[in-house]
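Consortium newsletter contribution from the modelling node. Members have asked for a concrete example of what our holo predictions look like. Here is one, prepared for the 1-O-alpha-D-glucopyranosyl-D-fructose complex that several groups have been discussing at recent meetings.
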Amino acid sequence: MKKNWWKESVVYQIYPKSFNDSNGDGIGDINGIIEKLDYLKELGVNVLWISPMLESPQDDNGYDISDYRRIYKDYGTMDDYEKLLEEAHRREIKVLMDLVVNHTSDEHQWFLESKKSKDNPYRDYYIWKNPVNGKEPNNWGGCFGGSAWEYDDETQMYYLHLFSKKQPDLNWENEKVRQEVYDMMKFWCDKGIDGFRMDVISMISKDQSFPDGKVGSGLYGDFGPYCVHGPRVHEFLKEMNREVLSKYDIMTVGETSGVTIEEAQKYAGENSGELNMVFQFEHVEDASQHAEFGKWTTARYDFKAFKKIMIKWQEQLQGKAWNSLFLGNHDQPRSVSRFGNDNPAYREASAKMLATCLHMMQGTPYVYQGEELGMTNVYFDKLEDYRDIESIQYYTELTDSGLMNPDYMMKCLMLRSRDNARTPMQWNDSEQAGFTKGQPWIKVNPNYKEINAKSQLADPDSIFHYYQKLIRIRKEKDIVVYGEFEPLYREDDQIFAYIRRLGEERLLTVCNFSEHPAEMEIPEEFTKARCLISNLERKSFEGKIVLKPYEAFVLYK
Ligand code: TEU
Ligand code: CA
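And here is the predicted structure:
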């Protein structure tokens, strides 16, 4: 397998609004990130993916960009950003920019022009359609609830927005749009960034017939079959690769929800000439596929289905494409609350177990801010505590329409809202968890007195230090990066175990995903193997053993 620096990296995702506030206005900022670079260096990560920091009205916390060449004022200045790049690079840490080019903000100059008149030079930068029988051009619903079309009085036409109405979709059919995007990407590469995480890049090409979608349990039709992995998406990405990506030594990861194994190979196959890797979402969407209202369910994840999906991606991309490994991000609930157990009795053990399972697989691991501390869901039980546009709009739509009972919907938000991942980083046990000297834009999780970076840095057995060790093992051992993957106990309903092989070397990872003891037998191949890491200080690794709840370890030979 070809060696690449991005295969050997560990990425840390920063959600800048919630990471560290340096000036007391309650909003994280660039100087706040710079202050914490030594912390990140100590953890051992070598790539940062920072969620969008460009000028934006913040309708979707920066995923609505109004100027691609200007830093959002509350985050700092271009000088601050350049200093961040310099300070990160000085510590051998690379920086990925979040590229949001499926849509812009409706306050972007292009859109302000576009909506002025039908013959404005920017008109075709966006997707405008005439009303059909006085109504929306088709029945598509947006990702945040409501119709995907918004009527504009000025020219009496509708524009498409797959996300909020303040996020109009760019028209990638227009060559000028593509050229603008490529020029902007070059601008940032020339500034010295080290790559891109590409927001909903799988949705940039739309079926130009714009047909109605299937209506499920909600009020609107599904645009999926016509906009996700649309007709020209691979053509566009190959063009982007030729024009920009291939000219720099950068890393690219596409956010491609709905991606299948086959599609992933097109986007990120070893020789696809598109991207280095993609995020797949099957393992975090599984419960939703069976629920009536998509992600809005209180159902807990199904371990066996989860394991099956993870194994499938390991086995089927092997030697063909590269995996992105993640259990959480700014759109997902906290991983320890979701896949582990955030009850104080099990939180530490299960957070370490999840990290073990993920970091020893083949692929590039992503750590979402606070995950290295075992930060948990916040479980806000009042709508006014929520800030996320998706949570607020869906709550309103589903309860106003009578489709869902308000108490039940609140329970769904508590488990599934994106805000669970967006409460401030817990730095220490002082007021507001040390995140800000002012009032934070979103409430701090009340458990910050027990869960915070300061106490974990002081404790050699903390989750933080466990992550540090896992990252070190990956750096020291090629087998963790390049070894072949082989699952064990496929059908077991508590244990996730697998072997990695590289030349004569062998690695065994064993994880108990349940809160009950689990029996297993160590494969003979691993007799007298050495333990590299163990979350519950196990001493014996021979023959039949009984794993404790949430126990995990890694053997090496
Ligand atoms: O998310 C894309 C995406 O598919 C989301 O709709 C996701 O399914 C949802 O958040 C799950 O609840 C990206 C960004 O990661 C997200 O933060 C943005 O809101 C979105 O694009 C629009 O830019
Ligand atoms: Ca600030």
